[in-house]
């Protein structure tokens, strides 16, 4: 196993991504991700000091919308595909760790 | 909690204020931006983050953001949007579209009524989250049975205003929030209602020994829902931190939750690493680069801000700008200036507007106001009588002289008053002696007694101040 | 018959939309079990739609430029009330409450949507073997893959299920399956076709595009779906394309550069029989009056590396919304976080998980500059190199895929092997330029080879000129 990414890194990243991996998967993924990152290492050879990053292939700026309401919405349509609903709200198991 | 126990310590406060912008629709979609309403009725594919949905920027929100930036003396600049990634059920896309490296407004300041300038680091655009409520277990998160999510608020435009850590007391912090709210309301950017959540304050608090240049470790305090809570939370948190340090320990950097009911902050997050938001430039949006022409147009459309209005009133009334705060806050400054220009005595103008018009000016006109005050200053009406006439003018309008006559108000002759007072003093010799020989405390008590007697006998028509003057004059001679 | 001829026939009442549909439904019935191009065949809806078209025609109305034409739509594009699964368990049975913009445009043009096609899960793959609902097989040889990720759409056209199909292309996912199935596939300029309703994989790279049997048919479909959409901020503010004149204009005097790195140069792995077809394509274009030379676009060698950082990074963010809260199946748990973890773990396949983790890593604290930041700079280099090439050339040329269709299971052991399928196509996505694959010649195994024409941003017109010539020449040869 090369050092591009460690087993701990993969475990950490899985947690960040809300994925749970078995030990077998963790090993397999670590190998595969290391290979891929190793391949991407050819970028290290480039001198990118003076190069600007491109976030976007399109040269557009200032694209706006008018502040006008759209058509009224039938909330049933949206609630219909929810796994669980109560009082017209999306129901989930207790959400601990308040964020905002 | 007084600052006695914080002797030798300095509190350092930086405030982050989120204000909902007063647009008709959300930041990135045409779902409506309205408070209240049945759950999940102001939604659409974009608000719910449905697969395939895409954001499109609301031009009005940008205009309001620029208004805020200009009103806070910021540099308005080219900006980009960024994704702030984290999982939580009220986050429909599991990322919030915000601004990170390049915010629309940067590097401004806000002047407090007392003249102090507080730095504004940045004021940027971002979208609001939905609202989750926790059911069962008394509404407390840790004991809940389940949670419910309403996405009406998801996607509402917010401006996040990050103040520099220049505040040094709970009072300054309250003053900052109050002034900021006045500005936001004056420019039409937000309705600034903390109780409705359209303005939210998070507070960063740290302490350091007086005289120290270095910043201490700070904690962020959330869930502050009023100005009063802000003051209480800051004082509690500062004390908590001082206690920790003086007991030989270190303050841990944390996010804490203010509990209004028990008056303390609690940590909600267990001891784990800080969120890694993995910010990157939002690929579904393009850069925002307002033209100089547009910015100038917006600048020119801004109304006079509270600071300038305080200065205007101060000049007109011969007071300091800080003394003008209350009248400006109540939006009565233009009225006051107009009355003063009509010749009304500035002191009386301010006293009435600050104390005697709790429900606003109603039917009161500048002419009648000025007229009333001239009756006061000429001695035709006592202060108490003027207050009554004022109430009537506000309620029904009319002419001050007529209303005074209708009440049977006449100024009391001063010599009539003196005679009356002689009589009262004669009836209460011990009290009079106590007044003449007493210390200021005692005099105050006794004068209150005598004024009360005078009022009884004149059915409230005497001017309390004049009574006091008479008593004092008598006592000296 | 070409699509245009069919449309005219139906509009004139010479043919009925229902007949056209029926005959295609029969073809589907015959071979679909073997090929598995569709996640869902919308038989009832299609029949109703065809009836409606016939009524409109009978009333003397014009249903549009695609009147009565059966079209297959990749299952990562939202169709209101019709399951849209992205071939993933995490969206199994999900009914979108809205139509993608291009679906509306197809309906407005009188097209008859026949079904949702299979894909690699969330468009991540080059063989359609990553589908949670089983792979699609190449109609020309069912032991082989059709390519991916739009394998179902390519196969649908190749098998004659529908004359037209819609796919999406993020790193080659229209062009490579087109090449492997012997049909025409086009990735338009980024922003040319609305992405509203396309389930996002990598937002700065994704584009929707057409599959067809001929260049002319592909042009017609592209015209219908292209054009500005106010619901997509990244949509080019221009009206729909008009490509009609491109089909007959020829390539006289056009300067065409063969990308050296992709045609036997720096990048290995392009098979000899594919290169041989490229040679013949060069000859064909030269005979038709184009001036063809070799040219270098140096940064293309870095395209794969940059892509395999940028695409997963954007994908890791785009796929975070699949958390079991608002839509899709849910795996219950005691707390919301546990529910999210359980739902995502059960719902995503391995390739998707791999890319999510790779992307999360590339964006994570401490690694952003090393991976994502760097890759975005490489993107600039690639765009600069293309810009330099387009100063001297009107078009560029390369193979579409490094090999012909490979056997099922051949590359599933090693993800990196599969990624190499994208070498020739990836740079156009990074640069945002249009590119198309046209069948040209065959490999030593008798399977079709695709040749890729690349054009500068917004110049689909010139691209189609060369595509038409290649097609004409290819038909002449076979």
Topology (SSEs and partners):
The complex is a heterotrimer of chains A (100), B (477) and C (478).
Chain A: H1 7-16, H2 23-40, E1 64-65, H3 75-79, E2 85-86, E3 89-92
Antiparallel strand pairs in A: 2-3
Chain B: E1 9-20, H1 45-48, E2 57-58, H2 59-71, E3 75-76, E4 82-85, E5 95-98, E6 105-111, E7 117-127, E8 131-135, E9 146-150, E10 157-163, H3 170-186, E11 199-209, E12 219-224, H4 227-246, E13 255-259, E14 264-267, E15 280-281, H5 292-301, H6 306-317, H7 325-329, H8 333-341, H9 346-355, H10 366-377, H11 383-396, H12 400-407, H13 414-427, H14 429-437, H15 440-458, H16 464-476
Parallel strand pairs in B: 12-13
Antiparallel strand pairs in B: 1-10, 1-11, 3-6, 4-5, 4-15, 6-7, 7-10, 8-9, 11-12, 13-14
Helix pairs in contact in B: 3-4, 6-8, 8-10, 10-11, 11-12, 13-15, 13-16, 14-15, 15-16
Chain C: H1 3-11, H2 17-35, E1 38-41, H3 43-58, E2 70-74, H4 101-108, E3 112-117, H5 151-158, E4 164-169, H6 175-181, E5 184-187, E6 207-212, H7 215-225, H8 246-249, E7 255-259, H9 272-287, E8 291-295, H10 300-318, H11 336-347, H12 350-363, H13 369-392, E9 395-399, H14 415-419, H15 426-431, E10 435-442, E11 448-454, H16 460-477
Parallel strand pairs in C: 2-3, 2-4, 7-8, 7-9
Antiparallel strand pairs in C: 1-3, 4-6, 5-6, 5-10, 9-11, 10-11
């Amino acid at each position: 196993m090369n050092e591009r990414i460690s087993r701990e890194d993969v475990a950490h990243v899985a947690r960040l991504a809300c994925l749970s991996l078995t030990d077998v998967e963790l090993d397999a993924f670590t190998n595969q991700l290391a290979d891929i990152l190793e391949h991407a290492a050819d970028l290290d050879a480039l001198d990118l000091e003076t190069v600007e990053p491109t976030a976007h292939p399109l040269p557009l700026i200032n694209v706006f919308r008018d502040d006008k309401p759209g058509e009224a919405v039938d909330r049933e349509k949206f609630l219909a595909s929810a796994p669980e609903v109560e009082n017209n709200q999306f129901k989930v198991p207790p959400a601990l760790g308040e964020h905002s | 909690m007084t600052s006695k126990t914080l002797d030798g310590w300095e509190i350092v406060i930086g405030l982050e204020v989120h204000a909902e912008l007063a647009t008709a629709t959300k930041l990135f979609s045409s779902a409506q931006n309205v408070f209240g309403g049945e759950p999940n009725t102001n939604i659409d594919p974009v608000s719910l983050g449905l697969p395939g949905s895409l954001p499109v920027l609301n031009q009005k929100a940008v205009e309001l953001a620029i208004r805020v930036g200009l009103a806070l003396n910021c540099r308005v600049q080219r900006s980009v949007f960024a994704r702030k990634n984290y999982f939580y059920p009220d986050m429909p896309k599991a990322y919030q579209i915000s601004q990170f490296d390049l915010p629309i407004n940067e590097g401004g300041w806000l002047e407090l009524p007392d003249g102090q300038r507080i730095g504004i680091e940045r004021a940027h655009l971002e979208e609001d989250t939905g609202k989750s409520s926790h059911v069962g277990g008394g509404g407390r998160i840790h004991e809940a049975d389940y949670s419910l999510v309403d996405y009406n608020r998801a996607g509402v435009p917010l401006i996040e205003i990050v103040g520099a850590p220049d505040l040094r007391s709970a009072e300054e912090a309250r003053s900052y929030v109050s002034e900021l709210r006045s500005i936001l309301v004056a420019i039409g950017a937000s309705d600034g209602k903390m109780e409705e959540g359209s303005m939210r304050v998070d507070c960063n608090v740290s302490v350091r020994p007086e005289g120290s240049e270095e910043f201490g470790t700070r904690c962020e305090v959330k869930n502050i829902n009023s100005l009063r809570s802000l003051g209480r939370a800051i004082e509690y948190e500062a004390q908590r931190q001082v206690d920790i340090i003086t007991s030989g320990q270190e303050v841990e950097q944390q996010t804490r939750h203010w509990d209004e009911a028990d008056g303390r902050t609690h940590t909600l997050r267990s001891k784990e690493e800080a969120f890694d938001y993995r910010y990157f430039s939002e690929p579904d949006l393009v850069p925002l680069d307002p033209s100089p022409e547009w910015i100038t147009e917006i600048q020119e459309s801004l109304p006079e801000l509270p600071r300038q209005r305080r200065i205007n009133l101060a000049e007109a009334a011969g007071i300091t700008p800080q003394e003008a705060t209350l009248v400006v806050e109540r939006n009565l400054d233009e009225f006051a200036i107009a009355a003063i220009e009509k010749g009304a005595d500035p002191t009386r103008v301010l006293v009435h507007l600050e104390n005697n018009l709790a429900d606003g000016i109603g039917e009161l006109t500048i002419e009648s106001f000025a007229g009333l005050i001239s009756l006061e200053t000429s001695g035709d009406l006592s202060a108490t009588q003027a207050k009554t006439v004022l109430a009537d003018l506000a309620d029904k309008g009319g002419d001050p002289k007529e209303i005074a006559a209708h009440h049977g108000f006449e100024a009391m002759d001063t010599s009539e008053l003196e005679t009356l007072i002689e009589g009262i003093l004669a009836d209460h010799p011990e009290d009079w002696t106590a007044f003449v020989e007493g210390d200021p405390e005692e005099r105050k008590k006794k004068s209150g007694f005598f004024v009360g007697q005078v009022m009884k006998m004149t059915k409230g028509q005497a001017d309390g101040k004049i009574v006091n003057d008479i008593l004092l004059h008598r006592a000296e001679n | 018959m070409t699509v245009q001829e069919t449309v005219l026939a139906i509009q004139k009442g010479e043919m009925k939309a229902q007949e056209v549909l029926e005959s295609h439904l029969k073809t589907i019935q015959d071979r679909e079990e073997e090929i598995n191009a569709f996640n869902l065949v919308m038989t009832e809806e299609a029949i109703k739609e065809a009836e409606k078209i016939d009524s409109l025609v009978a009333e003397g109305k014009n249903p549009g430029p695609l009147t009565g034409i059966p079209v297959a739509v990749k299952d990562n594009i939202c169709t209101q009330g019709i399951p849209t699964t992205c071939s993933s368990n995490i969206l199994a049975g999900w009914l979108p409450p809205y139509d993608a913009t291009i679906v509306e445009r197809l309906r407005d043009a009188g097209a008859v949507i026949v079904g949702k096609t299979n894909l690699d899960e969330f468009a991540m793959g080059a063989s359609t073997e990553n589908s949670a609902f089983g792979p699609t097989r190449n109609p020309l040889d069912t032991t082989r893959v059709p390519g991916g990720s739009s394998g179902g759409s390519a196969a649908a056209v190749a098998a004659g299920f529908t004359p037209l199909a819609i796919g999406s292309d993020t790193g080659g996912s229209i062009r490579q399956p087109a090449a492997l199935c012997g049909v025409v596939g086009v990735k338009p300029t980024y922003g040319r076709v609305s992405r509203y309703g396309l389930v996002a994989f990598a937002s700065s790279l994704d584009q929707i595009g057409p599959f067809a049997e001929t260049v002319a048919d592909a042009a017609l479909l592209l015209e219908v779906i292209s054009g500005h959409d106010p619901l997509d901020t990244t949509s080019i503010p221009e009206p729909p394309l008009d490509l009609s004149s491109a089909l007959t204009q020829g390539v006289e005097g056009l300067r065409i550069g063969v990308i050296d790195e992709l045609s036997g140069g720096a990048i290995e792995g392009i098979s000899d029989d594919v290169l041989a077809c490229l040679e013949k394509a060069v000859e064909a274009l030269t005979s038709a009056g184009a001036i063809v030379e070799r040219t270098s676009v140096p940064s293309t060698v870095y395209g794969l590396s940059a892509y395999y950082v940028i695409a997963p990074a954007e994908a890791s963010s785009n796929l975070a919304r699949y958390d079991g809260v608002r839509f899709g199946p849910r795996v219950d748990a005691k707390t919301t976080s546990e529910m999210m973890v359980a739902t995502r773990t059960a719902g995503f396949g391995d390739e998707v998980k791999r890319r999510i983790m790779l992307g999360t890593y590339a964006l994570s604290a401490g690694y952003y500059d090393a991976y994502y930041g760097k890759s975005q700079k490489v993107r600039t280099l690639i765009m600069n190199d293309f810009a330099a090439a387009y100063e001297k050339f009107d078009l560029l040329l390369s193979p579409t895929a490094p090999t012909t269709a490979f056997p099922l299971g051949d590359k599933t052991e090693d993800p990196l092997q599969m990624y190499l399928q994208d070498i020739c196509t990836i740079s156009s996505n990074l640069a945002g330029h249009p590119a198309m694959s046209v069948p040209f010649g065959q490999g030593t195994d008798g399977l079709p080879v695709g040749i890729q024409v690349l054009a500068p941003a917004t110049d689909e017109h010139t691209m189609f000129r060369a595509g038409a010539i290649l097609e004409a020449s290819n038909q002449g040869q076979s």
